[in-house]
Design brief:
The chain is mostly helical. The chain contains 4 helices and no strands. The protein has a domain at 19-46 and 56-87. The protein has helices at residues 18-31, 34-43, 59-65, 69-87. Helix 1 packs antiparallel against helix 2 (34-43) and helix 1 runs parallel beside helix 3. The longest helix is centred in the C-terminal third of the chain and has 19 residues, at 69-87. The N and C termini lie far apart (61 Å).
Length: 88
Amino acid sequence: MTKKSSDKPKKRSSRRTSTAAQHDLLRYAAMGKGKKLHKLLKAHRQLDLDAADAKGDTALHHACRGNHVDLARLLLRCVRLLTKYDTA
């Protein structure tokens, strides 16, 4: 029995929903996952970096609280770049 092209399993989308990406942004910042955070920011350039969790904490809050200075700098640099382009 031969398989038809329609029998192929559908590929899952590599793009995640913005809600899942926002959740990952906060989680990676809290856990100090620099490489994953950087990859996420590159993949989702429209992420809201000011988005907060249920307690009102942003990714920057989580990075600072966890003493992840490199991630805090990365987030500040991203915010500064976004602000620069938004006001131009």
